[in-house]
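Table S2 (continued). Query chain:
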Amino acid sequence: MAIINQLDLENLLQIDVTAEPDSTVTSYLVQAQAAAEAYCQRHFDYATTNIETFDGDGNTAIIQVDRWPIDTVTTVVESGVTLTVDQDYILYTANGWVMRTAGGARQAKGWRNHRRGIVITYDGGYEAPTPAGGAVVPDDLTLAITRIAGRLFRSGSAPIAGPVSSVTLDGIGATSYSGTVTVTDLVLLDEEKASLDPYMNPGLV
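Corresponding output:
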């Protein structure tokens, strides 16, 4: 689900689209967010019960989850053992970090060397227009994605709809999806990339 809406686009372009919602505008909003997510290598929209699996290497202490800010963490399991928050790990919710600690001390400790051995179940991401569980979408992120959607709208590009599992941008990589999204061949402009850079996934673990 897009974290921006038709009103964001109308305000940016100073237009009034008659249909509420307009199906073409909706597809542009989803395409714009999909392109932004592919560039940033993460998902923005709020989702519950995300289950993510990571490798431990015995040295790295911080894991970066896919959707942040983190709302709540249900479980953190390392090599089959359920860990305890503030004893075995610390949450940095704004950054989406889960840091392994040494037995209740505020000292970082590497996640156990175990391939696919760390499983984190959590809720997280941004939610619009009125957050019920997720965080408020930052204004600069809303503007960045809306500008991409506005460029699609002004170009009159025909939206390409259909079920897909990933979005790939040349030279950037792919972002996977579990549901249905609408995508198009879209190359981001340098100024759009610069606006999205603060929201990049740093790729920890």
